[in-house]
Amino acid sequence: MDKIIEDYHGHKKTDNHPAEDPKVVLNAPDFPPEEAKMILSTRIRVGRNLAEFPLGPGLFEDKTRAEIESKVTQALSKFDGELKGKYYSLDSLSEKDRKQLIDDHFLFKEGDRFLDACGLNRNWPKNRGIYHNDKKTFLTWVNEEDQLRIISMQPGSNIKQVFQRLLDALSKIEKVAKFAQDPHLGYITSCPTNLGTAMRASVHIHLPNLGNKANKAEFEGIADKFNVQIRGAHGEHTETDDGIFDISNKRRLGITMTSLVQDMYNGVKAMIKREMELAKVANAPAAAGTVKAGPHLKKPEDITGFVVFPAGTTSLVSKYCTKEVYNKYKGKKDKAGVSFE
Fold first, then answer.
1. pTM for this prediction
2. Quick one: CA dihedral 278, 283, 288, 293, positive or negative?
3. Whole-Å CA distances, 105 to 63, 157, 222, 312
4. Residues 210 and 219: beta-carbon distance below 8 Å
5. Assigned fold of 2-329
6. pLDDT tens digit string along 28-49?
7. Which residues are catalytic?
């Protein structure tokens, strides 16, 4: 795993993950109106697991998953102000609540065949659930791929407000349920790509000129400069032809959450600046902001999981977890009694 993590993140075994510095604050002034109208929605999510429990594949008994649900809902029940809301248990949903959660695109489903193979679907849907606040700008999934998927979101461009809401919620939850954390790896998650901050801060933004195929190299160059990534707005592996893109932080491990949100803000500012320049050259209006927000606000799912790669594509797992390595370590168990296998 050390080799996979170093290859993916550039984070060596001797490197530590930095703690958040309360003196360092996000520098994200409000976007001027002509820039703000290009941003349809903002969402920041993190994955978290609880320190006193093994990860999902190691939860062999109902009672362990039930203990996690109980501890988390105890924390959520104390939320007040804008975070105040309701918890919905998946195995006791009324038809009315189920329909509403589906309409809101909040209802997560049983995991795919890969999650099933590693045991994450055991006893579905017992002790799984969803919490959202009354304004539907804050959401927590309980006992999905990670034990917690915590999401702050809202229409528009107020990145600072979305981030602060997330930080407030994390602080309140951790007073009751301590998160699994390691000096080297940061927050521990089910997928090695999500270690460190386990955070993805993103906006959906309308960039019809910069996002044109003719400007692909320049678009990607700006993304690389500010350590952000470009995705289609309708899912992780989608292409887009509507000029709407999902822009998010590229890094996860070895850098603080505040710095990663700063990456995203700075990258978006640079992209907006170039979009407006290109619009003037083309004698065309910049993004009009009339496009309705897509599934970004209403579909807060970003399940990492595994991907079936086409032949010839290099997989870091197949590169480092050779048959010899697997056979050597398959019987090794962690402190919770869960084997490498």
1. 0.84
2. negative
3. 29, 21, 32, 36
4. yes
5. Creatine Kinase; Chain A, domain 2 (3.30.590)
6. 999 999 999 999 999 999 999 9
7. 45, 145, 149, 191, 193, 200, 231, 236
